[in-house]
Amino acid sequence: MRRGQWPLAALAAAVALAAAAQDAARGQRVYETQCGGCHYERVHQRERSRSTVKSQAELRVEVARWAAQVQQRPFTLEDLDDIAAYLNETHYRFPR
Ligand code: HEC
Predict the structure, then answer these.
(1) Does residue 2 fall inside a structural domain?
(2) Which residue of 33, 40, 43 sits with most ligand 1 atoms within 8 Å of its CB, as the best mutation to test the pocket?
(3) In the 8-state DSSP scheme, what is residue 22?
(4) In angstroms, rounded to a whole number, what is the distance separating the alpha carbons of residues 28 and 7?
(5) 40 C-alpha vs ligand 1 centroid, how far in Å?
(6) Which pLDDT score is estimated for 3?
(7) Residue nearest to atom 8 of ligand 1 (CA)
(8) In a domain, 64, yes or no
(9) Which residues contact 92 (CB under 8 A, 6 or more apart)?
(10) Cβ(43)–Cβ(31) under 8 Å?
(11) How far apart are CA 7 and CA 69, in angstroms?
C-alpha cells in the first residue's frame, strides 16, 4: 500500500457522510416548516404501489412540483435537494 492512501480515503468517506447527514437534517427543517401544513409524513409511507414516487429522480421531481405550490417562500435548488435527501433517507430509501 502506498503511503497516505488510507487517510485520504477515510477523510473523503467522512466528508461524504457528514455532507449527506447535514443535508437531510436541513431538508427536514425546511420540510417541517414549509410542507407539514398540508400533509403529515404519513403520505410518504403509502404502499409502494400507491405512491406517485417510484425512484429518487421522481421523488426529486415531486418535491419540486409541491414546492412550486408553496407560495410563502421561494425554494432554492439546495432546499429541494435537501428535502428529497431527507425524505429518501427517512421514508423512500431508493438507491442513489
Ligand atoms: C396544498 C397542500 C400541500 C402542500 C403545501 C404540500 N403537499 Fe405534498 N401532497 C399533498 C397531497 C394532497 C398529496 C397526495 C396526492 C396524491 O394522493 O397523489 C401530496 C403528496 C406528496 C408527495 C407524494 C407522496 C407519495 O409517496 O405518493 C410528495 C413527495 C410530496 N407531497 C412532497 C411535498 C413537499 C416536499 C412539500 C413542501 C415543499 C409539499 N408536499 C407540500 C398536499 C400538499
Answers:
(1) no
(2) 43
(3) H
(4) 32
(5) 9
(6) 62
(7) 66
(8) yes
(9) 44, 53, 56, 59
(10) no
(11) 46
For the record, the C-alpha cell of 56 comes out as 429518487
Q: Is residue 36 part of a domain?
A: yes
The range of the structural domain enclosing residue 87 comes to 29-96
User: How far apart, in whole angstroms, are the C-alpha atoms of residue 87 and residue 32?
Assistant: 11
Grid coordinates representing 67? 414546492
Cell 447535514 sits on residue:
22
pTM exceeding the 0.90 threshold for the entire prediction = no
User: Measuring CA to CA, how many Å separate 78 from each of 2, 23, 45, 48, 81?
Assistant: 37, 9, 24, 26, 5
Which residues, including other chains, have CB under 8 Å from residue 79's CB and lie 6 or more apart? 27, 30, 67
Q: What is the number of domains present in the chain?
A: 1
Residues in the chain, total? 96
**Within-domain flag for 22:** no
Q: pLDDT tier at 15 (50, 70, 90 boundaries)?
A: low
From atom 32 of ligand 1, which residue's Cα is the shortest distance away?
A: 63
Question: d(Cα 83, Cα 79) in Å, to the nearest integer?
Answer: 6
